[in-house]
User: Fold these one by one.
Assistant:
Number 1:
Amino acid sequence: MQQYEMLRRVSRTFALSIEQLPQILRDSITVSYLLLRVSDCLEDNEIMEADRKAELLRLWAQVLSETAPVEKLTHHLTHLDSSDPEHYVAQNAQVVIEQLHQLPPEIQEAIIERVNRTSLGMARWQEHGPYVDNEEEMDDYMHQVAGRVGYLLTDIFAWYSPIIRARKEQLMPLSREYGLALQTVNVIRGMRKDYERGWVFVPRTFYENVGLTRDSLFAPENLDKAMQVVDMLADKAERHLWHGMSYITAFPRHQHRIRLACMWPLFFAVRTLAFSRNNANVLLAEAKMGRDQVSMIMRHTTFFGWSNHWLVRYYRFLARPPKRFMPVEKSLAISV
């Protein structure tokens, strides 16, 4: 089906998690993910001015609420390079909306509400500007783009499972932490790329605490101090990730496929964070794990992830930083 082809094009990793779910959950979360990628496309566009992005994000919210036709949005996206998978999804938003309308009414309502609020939150942040003053502001941004996604997942899982529905009040705050966990790791691994496109999601209070500025944070001669900032972010990510573990272990063990769909992104983030600690590549380029690590995590969790005790031990195993990283001194020599 076309929505699954789109899903694989924009994110093979998330496709792995989503496509092993029961059919109705697979359909619902695929549509949700693709609608959110339309929002991402508008937010991440490197050509549009911030005010224009905010305007189109609000238009997208109107499209979702059926107060504006989808063609009114896609008309503004025809100039984008359709070979970019995210652009392609946005240009074909009509197809995704058609799939949305085939879902049960309760699921449609939850998806529209959450994606709508996320898009409006993104619009507000575009108008705010490409800087984050403190940790509270960082959490607000991450809540708009990821915390609300955690809420949406819980809405869908609770609709599907009476047991999860009974635990929804407990799960909701944990689902926000789950979203913030994944997004904090995204901030860490994307620090350099974000800076090059004009955005710094690192709180000002973090880098000023070690005597750096928004720009000097990325200067090669300041790597030692900058790595202290990475440590602050990594510690923050660790706190969110641990709450994310509580989210997963709160699901009933017999819902193994739902647990897997949540634990794979979380454990990928845990391992990515381990690769980011004490790794100067976070600031010079990008730090990420290899495909062999992805396969290993999927294999191990598929066989043993039903056990909450095992999951805690496996989390701690994945959180151990690899022994060898490029030393800061060598990184400095390469950068200069």
Number 2:
Amino acid sequence: MAKENNAQTGELRYLNPVSVDVKKKKYCRFKKLGIKYVDYKDGEFLKKFLNEQGKILPRRLTGTSQKYQKKVAQAVKRARHLAILPFVTDCMK
């Protein structure tokens, strides 16, 4: 009977509350903060652009512009060469 009453009134019930995904607008943090130079010696800053395995995150995930993504990639490669960042790891973060 309860199902019939809900069907008649047009009320929908869910087990879990319906979540509406509100996506944040991606932005280039370098342009927003006015950063001109990506320092390869700052390993903690460069870790923000790496995943758990140590791979460089793509632009579509970080929101970084193409100009600064190239600079980040070059800085990560230099930091790896100087052993500031690892080439491969199991769990970085």
Number 3:
Amino acid sequence: MIVANNFLFALGTVIGYALELYIWIVIVRSLITWVNADPRNPVVQFLASLVDPVTRRMRRAMPFLRMGMMDISPLLLIFFLFFLKIFVVRTLIQLSM
């Protein structure tokens, strides 16, 4: 039972850190789109490969996310990641207690 509790605690902690890292990646990618960075830059391409497939699916599923020139799909993605972090991570950590 102790091993299962420790496993759930560790799993919740690792998922929490991964979600936090992805939140920061989404924020950096959003900021990069505002400054028109070189799309051939390897860092820009890497960030785009991590974030753009998710936001593209969100925009396809909910077309209202693009309001004129403003795309709010990264903001909605960040809210969803915070929800996952609070719900999933806290649930796993509380199950480990």
Number 4:
Amino acid sequence: MKEKLKNKQGITLIALVITIIVLLILVGVSIATLTGENGILTRASDARTQTEIGDEMEKVKLSATGAKAENNGGEIKRNYLNDELTSYIGTEGTDYTLSESETAPFVVTYSDSGRSYVIDENGNVSEYVDIAESVEVGDYVDYNPTVLDKSGTPVEENKLTYTSPTGSGTQHGNGSRDQIFTATANTKWRVLDVGNETVTLISENPITIDAGGNFRMYGAIGYLYAERELNEICKIYGYGYGADTSQVTKYSYGGPIDGELTGEITGSGARSITIEDINKQAGITEAEYTTLNSDYGSTTNPTVNVYYPTITTSNGKSRSAGVKNLEYTSYYYSKTKIENPNAKNMLFNGNYWLASRCISPSSSSSSFIVSVVYDDSTNAGSLCSGGSSLGETAYSHFAVRPVVILKSNVIDTNTNYETEGHWNLK
């Protein structure tokens, strides 16, 4: 019996350790099989997500088809689309949101999942791609303002040219002479801003008149209609393939006693750059204007009546002094306010007009001004100044700088940017 017990060996420590290691390996393999990148649980989750995406997209497709049918197979209208989405998804604002644009592309976002889908002008539906993940400020985009589609169908010639007239106080113009601009395919375009549904482009360089030389605005007429003329010039760049022609460009015109006069340009995806565009890149809000000019918002100067520009006379000049205590709306700053080097170098490239007017009163007169980019800063040039009379000047001759609003879904984010040197359009 004693001899038999000697031959009975128990579990050694080494065997126990080996057993535990083997069990841990098996547990690890099991966990990986369940939760790894290609694990059962991960694949199940992915399958569930894809099923949800398929279901969401199907409802959006049905809504787009229904909206197109409501308009007899024509352009999808937002109100029709919203009705269809309500039928298939639920309540707008609670179950989904629909982009504000009245024309395609439309973006539909599900409230629960947060996923978004794009409906193009043909009713095709695709998952929304955040363009900002690929496209950056300063990038080049292969936009051509002279063609309507990828096959190269030309834009109507009359849309590609604009003659800014001399004008008068009662008729819009630049106050100097007739000046012609023509849009060509030669202009290069860079990204100025990336939004949710649009990408804003800016011409690589400021643009001059066809005959050569900068655009000239003069005196009271130049001031009265500066914003309109600059936007009319720049609109010729907004009819190309990909441009968001649903844009509405608003501008102000007139003098200080003419009332709050505004106009608008429709049908084009382009407009002139403004001081607000540069402010956005500099991170400057209206609340900060007084830090740039302590007089901003003041209405204490001038304290005497002064002459002023007005649309009520043929020469644009008031016949007598009649306004005082005008609001001070002028300010300016250096390019150092902009931190992004791409945006800074792109915006402060040459001297050009901004479609933004302002007023700079003093103790006995008031200057009526159009904003400009000049020598590494935003600045302001007086075209006329009222005191005991209305003096007129041509502050200087500057180029113009169009910006184009593109539909973000036309940019092909699969472009090899390093190879191409620009983003292609789909």
